[in-house]
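Journal club prep, shared notes

We agreed each person brings one worked example of a sequence with its structure written out as tokens. Mine is Methyltransferase family protein. I'm keeping it raw so we can talk through how to read the token line rather than staring at a rendered picture. Sequence first:
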Amino acid sequence: MEYLFILLATFIGMLFLMQLVFFEITRSKMAKAENVNWYLSLDKSFSYNRVGYMLFICFICYLISSPEDMFTASWFIYFILFLAMGVVADAIVQYLILVYSKKRCRKEIEDAKLLKNELLQIAQTISGEAEEPEQSTPQYDDEAILKQYLLPEDHLAFLSVDNGEFAKNFTPQPEATFLIEPYADEKVLEQKFADTSMKITTLTPAGQLPFKDEKIDVFMCRYSNYDKAEVQRVLKPNGYFIVQQNGTANLKEFVSLYMPFRMKGSWDAYSCAGTLEGIGMRIINKFEDYGTLRFHSIESLHQFFKRESPDLANINKYQVFYLKALKAIKDHHYFEMTTHKFLVIAQKVS
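Then the structure, token by token:
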């Protein structure tokens, strides 16, 4: 019996040291990442829910290390004792680590709770207009670029996801100007552009562009998915395709938290140009813009997402992100996000 107690104590000691090292490595990573939500997760009562996991681990270990003949009476007795010791040892270690973590991170936990309460208050009272973020100087002017390739008599088409804001503000427009908004209400857009010559249309039920072959002189796609073959089909010979997209690094501070495996490789001006060259188009020029947005309040960040991507304006749903932003604002007086966009001009070869 004394041997079993010594074995149990040794097992607990080894497990505790392993868990302690793992906890300190994790704590260091979370501190660098300023993950406030991780500290909040430490503020909980003890609850052991790893019985099944430990039974499986102990079963494998016992099969490998048991000196007894398998399925004998002594084998079963020691097997049951081994399982019990494993579960008890793990439960004790989990409790000790929880106690240690609360003491080790006492200040961080209290700060995280205060931060969460402040964020919840902001979420409940947020309304109205907020200051715009500070934006780095754009590296190119998409409106000026479009005008370089456009003639008054041209047929111009926009494919966008901004409810036609860019198209509405672009002047002067050729008489034959079309707007395609795949996700917007067509009737609402028709009312919005009632006092203009803009022709509102949409994709066909098959997802094709609503134009005859070789109908468009200049086709501009802004931040929307597009079918390369369809663009090639509707462009006139020597017509221009101007595509503006968000790159891989755009808003990476958010993406890395919620979609770490969203995209492999890099999506930038060179990658985009390569896909267009692959269908026989000639690349005229390409522009890359790596910039920043600085927010000085959660209200400003919320307003930005409400305008650009409404789902991301849900503070409760994306609490981890907004807590990180709030901590940065309190510590550094601003929260900075990376922007990455690019523009490629391609020409259909006649």
